[in-house]
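Revision sheet: structure tokens.
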Amino acid sequence: MPKRLPKVDVVLVGVGWTGGILASELTKAGLTVVGLERGKERKTEDYFMVHDELRYALRYELMQDLSRETVTFRSNEKVRALPMRSYGSFLLGDGLGGAGVHWNGQTYRFLPYDFQIRTQTIERYGANKIPAEMTIQDWGITYDELEPYFDKFEKMAGISGEENPLGGKRSDKYPTPPMKKSPTVNMFIEAAKKLNLHPYMVPSANLSENYTNPDGVARAACQYCGYCERFGCEYGAKADPVVTVIPVAKKTGKFEIRSHSNVRRILHTGNRATGVLYVDVTTGEEIEQPADIVVLTSFVFNNVRLLLMSNLGRPYNAANNTGVIGKNYAYQVFKGQSVGFFNDSEFNTFAGAGSLGACLDDFNGDNFDHSDLNFIHGANIAYTQTGKRPIQNNLVPKGTPGWGKEFKAASIKYYNSTISVAAQGACMPFRHHYLDLDPTYRDAYGDPLIRITFDFEEQDRQLTQYLASRCEDIVKEMKPSLVETAKELGPYDITPYQSTHNTGGVIMGADPATSAVNSYLQMWDVENLFVVGASAFAHNSGYNPTGTVGALAYRAAEGILKYRKSGGGILV
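Predicted:
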């Protein structure tokens, strides 16, 4: 029999950005909160020797152990899904802080169009613009309704930036100024302006200056060391849960973190959650943690998997397009890139930061006319100087041998003499893209793995070709010696790294028939269960998701407090 612990007000499954934000907000309001984290405890001191590219970037020190739990993948229902045995397309974080520790820090707001995508697409182009198998839907909330929560997240994290000239209206400016403009960033900005585009500095969770947030948390400015993505920040300059929200929750005395705690089931009686069942990874002991309110705050795949394994919600059925749990899985389209090789110029691109760069949204969302285009939405186009670490960066022109003297010479020649402009494309959901439980493969505890059914569509190929040409226009304006552009998008391949921006599966909306959670991320079917994270996204935009995830987390915290105060019921 599992060991049963005393009941708490709230139990969180996962302590990354969403879990940290909820812990901070709920404990400040007086609730007792337990955070269950299946990885280990972390603190800033753990990253004092973090500048080890081999250990962290290529051997995935901060990532989940795929030998114990992974995902399975298939491109369509006619083929057998196979497990992802080594890291490729995306990275699954592990430990306190989750992916919020090893992210780059690029913190965008989704566009107003994103939240009402179906309505606005039909209003401008007609219903026939949406392919029959594309399952886009409005999110049940507008940008204007979510804007105060964006502002709250940005002030907590100290986001450094400047106003997006083509973005939604802001209630206040960013709390800190944008990052420094390097020579190559200036080249991108000047080239974009010559093409009558609207560049702005990437909104950055790497602090441009020392900052103290509204909770009194003080952090130091970024040192531009170039070790952000896949690494923790030894300065605390990169906003992450460990240095921002988690300390605030701990200070209240009402938050307990239990690391090495792997949640296997959500316990429930009828349509009410009663707690969770987890395993102490260090001992193998099974433990029940009762709670008045249960909140799933883990990564997309685990949020969906726990609901399916716990028989909560209505599993999605692609055959008849019914159910909601697992519906509208989406990835990101990252193939539109143009590279300029400069024979007579050298730049200090070995220095950088995860969010150092400039970007533009002239071809994102519905900021441009799609009438004669065979796709909807678009991409944020950016040049980012994230730091050219020595192992993973050796761009050479096509035709260069893959090894030997000529390869080495070209690698050295162009190491600091290339500029890459890339499109981060939106990914629309389709009826046959979804998540479910794999019928064959299981994890170390004997539980089924999550299965991904996904492939790129004609929508994605058309978007890639169009956006790659726009990237090429900008690179050519910089006058390089040689330009090479990747315009073709083949079938989705889970082998090479592309993006960790997975979304969907527990999507939000205004209609319980087509969504799993409401605008507070409260489950329609289980009123005391909230599911927080990018799993709520009904599609994926042309941006990094964290800013929108953070805003939704703050709204969910407000919803939980309203729910608690009202004594129950579905929030409206």
